[in-house]
Design brief:
The complex is a heterodimer. By secondary structure, chain A is of the alpha+beta class. Chain A has a single domain, classed as Clam (outer membrane lipoprotein receptor (LolB), chain A). Chain A contains two helices and 15 strands. In chain A, the strands form two sheets. A 13-stranded antiparallel beta sheet of chain A has the order 1-9-10-11-12-13-14-15-3-4-5-6-7, covered by helices on one side. In chain A, strands 2-8 form a two-stranded antiparallel ribbon. Chain A starts with a helix and ends in a 5-residue tail after the last strand. Chain B is α+β, with helices and mostly antiparallel strands. Chain B contains four helices and twelve strands. In chain B, strands 1-8-9-10-11-12-2-3-4-5-6-7 form a twelve-stranded antiparallel beta sheet. In chain B, strand 8 and strand 9 form a beta hairpin. Chain B is globular, with a radius of gyration of 19 Å. The termini of chain B are far apart. In chain B, 23% of the residues are buried. The chains are: A alpha+beta, B alpha+beta. At the A-B interface, strand 3, strand 4 and strand 5 of A face strand 3 and strand 4 of B.
Chain lengths: 212, 211
């Protein structure tokens, strides 16, 4: 009797570990055979386009608004500038998958933890190529799992028209942050939200057309 | 021969454009008279409203980011800066406070103790009214253009200098009022604000400056 209780506990523990290592992201989805091994994100990929968004950043209850400007300046790198509505620059970065350069940042925002968070967020926002190791599905999405160092990215593509609607960046156990895309044509994202699960940070980008 | 003439014409027209656009330094007498003209006009300003178009120039972009709206000022220090296109964003400077209305989302910042915001307020009002000739705050240089005068202000204060490298105010020669404000962050990146449909001393109620 005692032996079987121990066995039962052991199995339960093992099961818990297995479920745990599966991660919280996919627990409600059904595994599926891979239908592709790589995926290329269409957003932010055109070097001729000025990507200009009205932006709201909510961080621990504080609001910061301004204009987010991004441009692909070569094959690997995006330039990102964030200005106030008046036009003064708050920060100016150049970022690729492996490099990061600060051209300028105002002293009020010059905090290592903030810069590192933004760096991670923007790197995922601009990430173009994903290698896929696993696939899942639910009613509306095909979900692709792509390893990212010690972490994973989960790409959610609509079953209806193969649009990338969100990317979840997750550790083995916890979702870290999610990028949501809204796109009419599957080339350009009109609305983007970056929402953090572990810190109270939300970045919302709304595309606006300049008048000229 | 025809081609040569054609090239020559182009060459000369380019030269001419370059010449007319060239800035010519004012003499001491011209500076004195220009400052006097601007001071006379700006002293008369009790209220001022103007439409504006803002061009944000970043050298790496293919075109400037254009936004536009209306600016209203009332003595001594009420100021509303309102963007209407392509989005609604309005900011009011009032009694040491900044009131923001961002597409209906309202917030307020108390700037009572912030020196930099006091300076910015003074700077905006000064830029639009033209009365900014403060040699203690800026190193100022004066130029003549065709039908216009140009004053360039380099901040002396280290904090302000971090945000703005130089301010250039362009004045209509006849009216002695500001027609363009250019804020330079670096040699390549700047914000250019063109003022038009200026109305001076129309009756403006204080209630305008709520957000």
């Amino acid at each position: 009797m005692q032996k079987s209780t121990i066995q039962y506990l052991l199995i339960n523990c093992l099961l818990a570990v297995v479920l745990f290592s599966c991660g919280s992201v996919t627990k409600n989805y059904t595994p599926k055979k891979l239908d592709k091994t790589s995926y290329e994100v269409p957003y932010f990929s055109d070097s001729k386009t000025d990507y200009v968004y009205k932006t709201n950043i909510t961080v621990y209850g504080n609001e910061l608004s301004g204009i987010f400007i991004a441009k692909k300046i070569n094959d690997t790198t995006h330039r990102i500038v964030f200005t106030t509505e008046f036009g003064n620059k708050l920060f100016d970065f150049e970022i690729s998958e492996t490099t990061f350069k600060i051209n300028s940042i105002v002293s009020e925002l010059d905090r290592k933890i903030l810069i590192n968070t933004l760096k991670e967020d923007f790197r995922l926002l601009f990430k173009k190529d994903y290698l896929i190791q696993e696939q899942f599905e639910n009613e509306f999405f095909n979900i692709y799992k792509s390893a990212d160092g010690k972490r994973d990215n989960y790409l959610f593509l609509t079953k209806k028209d193969q649009k990338l609607e969100k990317v979840i960046h997750s550790s083995q156990t916890k979702e870290k942050f999610t990028v949501f895309f809204n796109s009419e044509n599957n080339i350009f994202a009109e609305k983007i939200q970056i929402i953090h699960q572990n810190i109270k940070l939300k970045i919302e980008l709304n595309y606006f057309k300049s008048e000229n | 021969m025809k081609t040569k003439l054609f090239l020559l014409t182009i060459f000369f027209s380019i030269c001419q454009t370059a010449l007319t656009a060239q800035e010519q330094k004012m003499t001491a007498a011209e500076i004195a008279s220009f400052k006097e003209d601007v001071n006379v006009v700006s002293k008369k300003i009790k209220t001022l409203s103007t439409d504006f178009v803002q061009y944000k120039h970043l050298d790496f972009l293919s075109k400037d980011i254009e936004t536009s709206g209306k600016m209203i000022f009332k003595e001594p220090s009420l100021l509303q800066w309102q963007y209407k296109k392509p989005y609604n964003y309005s900011i009011v400077f009032k009694n040491g406070k900044i009131l923001i209305n961002d597409e209906g989302k309202k917030s307020a910042v108390d700037t009572g103790n912030s020196k930099i915001f006091g300076r910015i307020n003074k700077l905006i009002v000064g830029s639009v009214s033209g009365n900014m000739f403060d040699d203690k705050e800026f190193t100022i240089s004066y130029f003549k253009l065709k039908g216009q005068n140009l004053a360039k202000f380099i901040p002396k204060d280290a904090t302000l200098k971090k945000y703005i490298k130089q301010i250039e105010l362009t004045f209509d020669k006849e009216e002695a009022t500001v027609v363009q404000v250019k804020l330079l962050e670096s040699s390549d990146d700047y914000t250019r604000i063109v003022l038009k449909n200026k109305v001076i001393n129309a009756k403006i109620d204080d209630s305008v400056f709520t957000n």
